[in-house]
Amino acid sequence: MQEQQEQDVLVSISIFRKADRAKILRKIYNQRYLYIMLLPAMICISVFSYLPIFGWVMAVTDYQVGKSMWKAPFVGLKHFKEFFLDSGDAIGVIRNTLVMNVSSLVLGLFFALVFAILLKEVKSKYLQKSVQSLTFLPYFMSWVILYAVVYSLFSVSSGAINETLMALNIISEPINLLGDPKLSWALIIGVNIWNSLGYNSVIFISSIAGIPNEEYEAAVIDGAGRWAKIRYITIPHMIPTLMVLLIMNTGWLLNSGLDQFFIFTNTLNIETMEVFDYYIYRYGMKLFDYSYATAVSMIKTGVSIVLLIIVNKVVKKNSGRGLF
Amino acid sequence: MLKVFAVKKRVMKIVVSLALATTIFSGCAQGAAGTDTTAAVSEEDDVYTIQILTDPQSVVKLSTDTAIGKVIKEKFNIVFEYIPTTGDQKEKQNLMLSSGDYPEIMRLEGDDMVKKYIEAGAVICLDDYIAESEYFADRFAEQIPYWKVASPDGKVYKWEINMPQDYDVNPEVNDIGVRTDALEAQGWPNLVSEDDWFNFLKTAMEQYPTTNGEKTVGMVIPLAESWGPSLTTEFIEKGGITNDQGTNDAVLWNQVEQKWEAAFTNEDFIQNLRFFNRLYLAGILDPDSFTDTLDQCRAKVASGRALSMWYITWEISGANTELAAAGNEDMQYVNMPIRSNTQEESGLMRQIRVETTRPFDSVVITNNCKDPDRLFELIDWIMSDEGQILLQSGIEGEQYNIVDGKRVPTDEYLEKISSDPTYSELVGFSGALSLLGTCKQKGDDGIAYNLSLDPNYMDELFLSERQKEAYKALGWENSKSYWLETGEIALTGLASTCSLDTNSDEAKINEKFMAWRVTAGTKLITAESEDQFEVILAELMEEYNNMDVQKVVDKYNEILAANKANLETMK
Q1: Which of A34, A47, A65 to mutate to test the interface with B (most CBs of B within 10 A)?
Q2: Calpha distance A206→A208 (Å, rounded)
């Protein structure tokens, strides 16, 4: 009897599982076109983001170019130790990366928020759209063009800004913005804000567009002025968007973008400009120490993931909203 | 109606999905096709087409678009297809090796790169081919033992471009390119010592505060280039003892004692940085030098804005052409010597580097080659007198004629070689075909294979009237007089066969030094005063001593001793 009951239960579970499986398959079939559309993106991510992770094996071996990385001699944590203890570069690289990226992120979002709010207050739609389009332009320029613009303005011997300021006797010596290590952080942060202002403000503008008009009307009825409306309606509605952007960008805090630093770094400012991406490029591609460069890039990835988790937890705790 | 709409919607979904998938996969296929380096042997007429990497600015796509390439096709039925490449060549060579995607014949920069390719089994051993060769073994009789010594297994896997070399066929001397109007304004001084140059440039800056409405700069140097910082210590090649091996390594070559020594503790090394500091403090050194690439320096030189250029004297020819076109012939540049004060006072003969081997321009046949026998047949013939004359002098009757048994350039050659930028390419002189192996020597008739480099023709071909006037006023017989009179041959010998194992501790120290040297040099050059220079130098010396660089020097000398012992057995 008991045996029969057990058998009935097992059959039920099996039927249940089969039913679940059939349900899932039916769902997939019904949404097949969506999955097909998703397939190319999944393949791209798998091939270009996940497959290369197998290359991390180089970080624990002494990989030699031209030979199989699976047959390279195992060296354990030698390269990680070298970065943190022997090279003397770890502190400088981490410092430069965090200072420039955190400042660019925080100030970039702040200025984008303010810009979006100010743009919203502009009455003329035409002017609003024009300004928005113009501020978006730098985002599409390559760093090579951006550098050429900055060079033409700030070059020591022939920069337009330097020549104008010297002609007006505002300065007696040209400002070496491109070379002075004391100014390199300000340069990168300023360029990043300029570059991303349009892009970040679009997200805030769309967030503002989602605020119900009734709230503003109600505020007007209650006698709220422009500043009060901004302070008590606009800004609170933008906070969630700000939090989401902050969390999303935290994962990229250690990613600086090689092309920007490749262009802007030179022998004068390298001590304050060398970030993780440039350091990995220098050791990997210039000095051909692939194992060491892989180890450093793994450190960067690991720390980025930890930062993302921490920030998400903190924001979730404080505001109740998180990315995951 | 709804059914029709539903069908249309379904069709749209399928079409969009397929379009997305097609875009992705066709992009991948395009990329794969672009890097296909397999040879095409046409079955129709047995033409062997080989892809070779070349300069992106090349106007030629196939070797048969050139006069020389046509002759090669007639004789050997081999055609070269030019694939333009940009960027750092050494980086590309590493990437190609790691992906296994390299052409059949390629140039490799340095013996360390050649070793990597050999150890990966990517290149073909040439020993058997050399044993049966008609011309190759004779042409490189001196080089082959050195190549064997540098090779990990004592076998030959390569040959080199611009080898062998004759001393007087365009000796490589890159000192300072200087504006001739500035020289004329100060009475054509024969500048040599660093003090001569400092005083000259200081006066010239006062005489020419602006050039064509722009602020004049005293001296340009492309320090933003990856090889830029190594130029700041070139005094090491201008004395009579040491020589530059063209690297940023922790060691330099003592030509007199035939041994390696530490670079940073060398007097000339530091003195050069001291000289640049003087220029920096006096406002002579262009402040943009630290951020300028070669292109930016070229622009300043081509406009005449720079009174002088350090080391990059190969830009003189292009700059002078631009200045002539702008009507500023009087501003054209000439190459003049510089030595440190100590070197000038010593009276020692300058060591003019003549390479015994030139690993920088190594050429190999890779294991992707479909028919190495056929390719080597061409290479062997190229090493003959006839082959070299074709490759470097061109076609008889078109580029040269034979007069009294010697090659004499034709009027067409004389007219076009310096004035028509595409002439060299269309004949086949410049660019990719040099991969086959150009020898910087004189032919059997006593004239340099490359007519442009022959001492009898070089100045006539490439010096402008203004430059000839300048050298005459300076009392020089030709543009290389000073160096030929005050220099002596410095064969590189075994120096270029020495390289470190990239996985060794010494290589790691050397790597660290190379990165440190860049910032150290910049700190010294930008010191705020001569006193501060010495303070910074003392601090840097302490950092340097902590790096244990002596290990690298000792290792290099150990390798040198081993190679010297091996050389005798290889000969």
Answers
A1: A65
A2: 5
